[in-house]
TrEMBL record:
<protein>
    <submittedName>
        <fullName>Methionine aminopeptidase chloroplastic mitochondrial isoform x2</fullName>
    </submittedName>
</protein>
<keyword id="KW-0031">Aminopeptidase</keyword>
<dbReference type="GO" id="GO:0046872">
    <property type="term" value="F:metal ion binding"/>
</dbReference>
<dbReference type="GO" id="GO:0006508">
    <property type="term" value="P:proteolysis"/>
</dbReference>
<keyword id="KW-0645">Protease</keyword>
<dbReference type="InterPro" id="IPR002467">
    <property type="entry name" value="Pept_M24A_MAP1"/>
</dbReference>
<dbReference type="InterPro" id="IPR000994">
    <property type="entry name" value="Pept_M24"/>
</dbReference>
<keyword id="KW-0378">Hydrolase</keyword>
<keyword id="KW-0479">Metal-binding</keyword>
<feature type="domain" description="Peptidase M24">
    <location>
        <begin position="64"/>
        <end position="201"/>
    </location>
</feature>
<dbReference type="InterPro" id="IPR001714">
    <property type="entry name" value="Pept_M24_MAP"/>
</dbReference>
<dbReference type="InterPro" id="IPR036005">
    <property type="entry name" value="Creatinase/aminopeptidase-like"/>
</dbReference>
<dbReference type="GO" id="GO:0070006">
    <property type="term" value="F:metalloaminopeptidase activity"/>
</dbReference>
<dbReference type="Pfam" id="PF00557">
    <property type="entry name" value="Peptidase_M24"/>
</dbReference>
């Protein structure tokens, strides 16, 4: 459980006017019905592996399973926009999305991954990533990322999008637009034999047909440094600047790439 902390308004000539977010109360972890197939960490919180060192080359049956999980994640993410308005909480969003995922026979991938307590990640304003849904009411002018990942037929489908709460200032809108352009530009680069380092900082491998991976730019209005809060997950900018992040899962094809989470 988290304790309540203050939230105050930040007014900076270059960053804009918005609320600085700190954790609020987190509700109890929800239970997943026993009939829902779970990943290895569903009960233990410890995954059998955190993923291959390099992206695996998937065959057609694996790619079809990826398409199904990604299609479901995207479908659910698109329904989030209608839920967002001032006064609702990210805990409410989490419960709604959790029910949608379970209702489609899938498992919410973030839940219990290394102990993560919720079914989605919600990162508001100065929270860069891995925000835990809580009881803070969304405020007019907030921007937030909602990250939806589902486990279906043995594969994870992963995507995220930015949302605006009510009327957002110009600086916030520009931040979201630039992040969208960064993701679009990165996806356009993806094709066979392209170096991963052209869209990422520290991996020197090449893209090959059959590889699937996510692209998720996270942009800050200010400094790049973040701090991880006491919950072990929430990453906030050290200068309280806002961030935006957007994510798609892509498949490398014979002559380019396919966005699986459109």
């Amino acid at each position: 459980m988290k304790i309540f902390r203050f939230v105050h308004t930040y007014n900076n000539n270059s960053f804009g006017k918005y609320a600085i977010v700190r954790p609020w109360l987190v509700s109890e972890k929800v239970v997943v019905p026993a009939y829902i197939p779970q990943p290895s960490y569903g009960k233990s919180s410890i995954p059998e592996r955190d993923g291959p060192v390099t992206p695996e080359i998937k065959d057609e049956s694996q790619i079809e399973c990826m398409r199904q999980s990604c299609k479901l994640a995207s479908h659910i993410l698109h329904q989030v926009d209608a839920l967002i308005k001032p006064g609702i909480t990210t805990d409410f969003l989490d419960k709604q999305v959790h029910d949608m995922i379970i209702g489609n026979g899938a498992y919410p991938s973030p839940l219990n991954y290394h102990g993560f307590p919720k079914s989605i990640c919600t990162s508001v304003n100065n929270v860069a990533c891995h925000g835990i849904p809580d009881s803070r009411p969304l405020q007019e002018g907030d921007i937030l990322n909602v990250d939806v990942t589902v486990y279906l037929n043995g594969y994870h489908g992963d995507c995220s999008a930015m949302f605006q709460v009510g009327e957002v200032d110009l600086e916030g809108k520009q931040l979201i637009t630039i992040t969208e352009l960064c993701l679009k530009s990165a996806i356009e680069i993806c094709k066979p034999n392209q170096h991963f380092c052209n869209i990422a900082n520290d991996y020197s491998g090449r893209m090959k047909p059959g590889m699937t991976f996510t692209i998720e730019p996270v942009l800050s209005q200010g400094m790049t440094q973040i701090e991880i809060l006491e919950d072990g997950w929430t990453a906030c900018t050290v200068d309280n600047s806002r961030t935006a992040q957007i994510e798609h899962t892509v498949l490398i094809t014979d002559d380019g790439c396919e966005i699986l989470t459109l």
